[in-house]
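Q: My labmate handed me this sequence with no annotations at all. I'd like to see what the chain might look like in three dimensions before we decide whether it's worth expressing. Could you predict it?
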Amino acid sequence: MSTESTMTSISLEISNPCNERCVHCYLPDYPVKHIPFELAKKALREFRAMQGLSVHLTGGECMLHPEFERVCRLCKDLNLNFVILSNLTACDARRIAFLAEVQPQFVNVSLYSMDERAHDAITRLPGSWRRTMDAILACEKAGVPVRLAAPLLKENRKRRLKRNPSLLWSL
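A: Here is what I predict for the chain of 171 residues:
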C-alpha cells in the first residue's frame, strides 16, 4: 500500500473583485486584483500533472476576471472537471452560450431568497435577484447545469421559500 497522497481537487481564486457587497461577506473591500493568466495556467498544468481532477473557479466574482473564458478553456483542454462559483449577475447571452460550449460540471450560484427584495438587501445590489434568476433560467435552457447555494442568514430565514417555492424546485 502506497503512503503517497494525491490531491484531486483544488479551488482557484482567479479574481478578487465582486460586483455584490453581501452583508455576510468576510471581505468588506475588494481590491481589483486578478491572478495573471500565465500564473493560472502554470498552476493548472502542475495540478493536472499531479493527476488532479477537479477545479473550483472562484473569486470575488470569477466572471469579472478579464481572461475568465481562457481559464475555462484551459481547464477543458487539460481535461479537468471544473465548477464555477458565481452570482451570475455578470452573465449575458454571450456568456451563457460560452458556458454551454465549455460545459462546466456545474455552476454553483448563490441565491439568498426567492423574495427579490430580501435577496437584493443581502447582496446590496439592486436588481441582483432578477439578473441572477434570469441567468439561472437561461443556463437551464442552454443545458448548463446549475446548483443553487441558498445559505440561511438572519436576513432571509423567515422569507426564504415563501414567495415562490415551486420555482425553486422546478430548477
